[in-house]
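Practice problem: Chloride channel protein
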Amino acid sequence: MKPLSSALRALPDELADFLRRALFAIVIGLLVGAVGVAFHYGIDLATELRQEHHWLLCLLPLGGLAIVLLYQVCGMEKDQGTNLVLVAVREHEPMRLRTAPLIFLSTILTHLVGGSAGREGAALQLGASISSKIGHKLGLEPEEGRILTVCGMAAAFSALFGTPLTAAVFALEVVHVGVIQYAALVPALLSSLVGFLLAGWLRVPPTAYTVSGLAVLSPLSLLQMVVVGALCAVLAVFFCTVTHGAGHVYTKVLPDPRLRALVGGALVLLLSLLDGGLSHQYYNGAGGNLVEAAVTAGGMDVEPWAFLAKLLFTAVTLGAGFRGGEIVPTFACGATFGCVAAPFLGLSPSFGGAVGMVATFCGVTNCPLSSILLAYELFGGDGLPLYALAIAVAYRLSGYSGLYSEQQIIYSKRVPREIDRKAE
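Answer key — C-alpha cells:
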C-alpha cells in the first residue's frame, strides 16, 4: 500500500508536468509546422521558376555570393549549420533567431539558381532555432529547453517531409548515437504529429513512393540484404568523405568565402552545361526526381553513374557555401546506386533503389531506428524486415563517419561499451 499511496500523492505533479509539456509541444508543432509549410511552398516555387526559366542557372555564381554576403551582414558567417543544432540540443546552447530567416531565404535561393542541396537539414535548423529561442526567452531549465528544441526539429522535419514517426525519432536519435532521451519522446511525437496534420490541412502532400518487385523473405533475400547493406555502408562513407573534403579543399585553395561562392557557383554551372545544358537540370536541386526515377519508375532513366554525378554536384555546391541540407541528396545517391546494383544481385531495380535509399541514409546519419521508420513511412510495411536488415548492416559497417561532426557516438558499433566520440 505504501508505494501506491506515494504514487497517488505524486500524481498531480506528474499530470501537471505532462500537460505543461504537451501544451508546449502543441504550440511548437503549430508554429514550426506553419513555418515548415511556408518553406515547402517556397522551395516548390523556386524549383518551378528554375525549371521554367532555364537561364536562372546562369545566376549560380551570383546566388552563391549573395548567400555568403547575407550571412556576413547578419554576423553569421561562421554558422555551423546542422552541427549547431546538435550542440543546442546536447548542451542547451542558445541559437540565434536570425538563423531561421537566413536558412529559409538562402536555401530557397540555392534551389532557385540550381544548387544541389536538400531541404530537410535546413528544416532542422529552422525548427531548432525557433524553438530554442522560445525556450531561452521563457527561461526554461536546460533539460526543458533541450526537449523544446527537439520538438522544433521534429515538427519542421515532419511538416516538410510528411514522415511524423521518422521525424520524432530522428530528432531524438541523431544527437547521441546509442542513447535516446525517452523523456522527450511524448513531446517530440506530439509536435511531429501536430506539424504533420497542419501540413496536410494546408495541402502539403506527404512523401511516399511505390515499390515494385519486392523480394520475398527467404535465406537468399537475407543474403542479398547483407550485401546491399554493406555496399551502402561503403557509399555512405564515401559520401561523407567527399562532401567534407570538398569544403576543406575550397577553404584551403580559396580562403575568401566570397571567392569560394563565385567559383563554386561557376563550377556547378559548368557541370550543368556539361551534363546536358541548362534545360536538363537532372542533378540540380534536391534530388527528389532521382528518387522517383530509381524507385517509382524502376530505374528506367537512371544512368549507371548517376549516384556519382549527384554526389559531385552536391559536394561542389555545399562546399562552396550554398545553403541547404544533405539528406535528400543522400536519398538520391542511395536510390540511384541501389537501383543500378540491384540487377547484379537478382533484385528488382525499384526495390534495390528503395533499400539503397534508406540504408545509405542510415550510413550517413548513424540513425538505424529512424531509417527503419523511414522505410515504413515511405514504402509501406511490406518487406520491412528486409529493409531493417540492410539498414542494420549499413549502420554496423559504416564506421564512425557521419554528416554531422558534432554528432556524438556514445556506444561502440562493434561491442556494447561506451566510447563517447564525435563522428568524423
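Discussion: Residues 2-52 form the longest helix (51 residues). Students who identified this feature from the C-alpha cells alone can consider the problem solved.
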